[in-house]
Amino acid sequence: MSLGRRVKELQKEVIVSKIKESDNFYIIGFSGIKGNDFNSLRLSLKKNGARLMVVKNRLLRLAFEEMKLNQLSEFIKESTALVFLGEDIVASSKVLVEFSKENTGLQIRGGYTQDKVLSSKDIERISKLPGIQVLRAQAVYALKSPLMSLVYTLNNILAKLVWVLNGIKEKKEG
To answer: Is it the case that residue 96 has pLDDT exceeding 90?
Structure first.
């Protein structure tokens, strides 16, 4: 096996291992984006726990074939990159959608999450969902609200008891 062929095989294996490590990834296209803009996209994604990896189309097709993800090959054309998503899929989706609105050279082609192929429309819908921090705050509020009602009710009962006892005390004294 020639050195060039071996290097390509290793590159394909890196792609395969990254896909296996990340259950969720998006496939994007890019052209005509300035280097500084592309780097700012990388940094914005990194802040949300996502990683952007530019890949060769042929190697990506081979990786998809090896992983039995041939249905994703339709998203491979022109310049291609993978975005491996972190914990907050919504935040990364928002970053990509906003960036694509500002830079027409970025196309969100599709993705893969939890054994499901996503279209660009699906990714756009995901970007409109509330982020993980908002969902956590809503969950805490939902848990806190009944407890606070219970505390206020018990406090009110105790206050009434004290009021009644004070009334009885005043009658006995008076």
So the answer is: yes
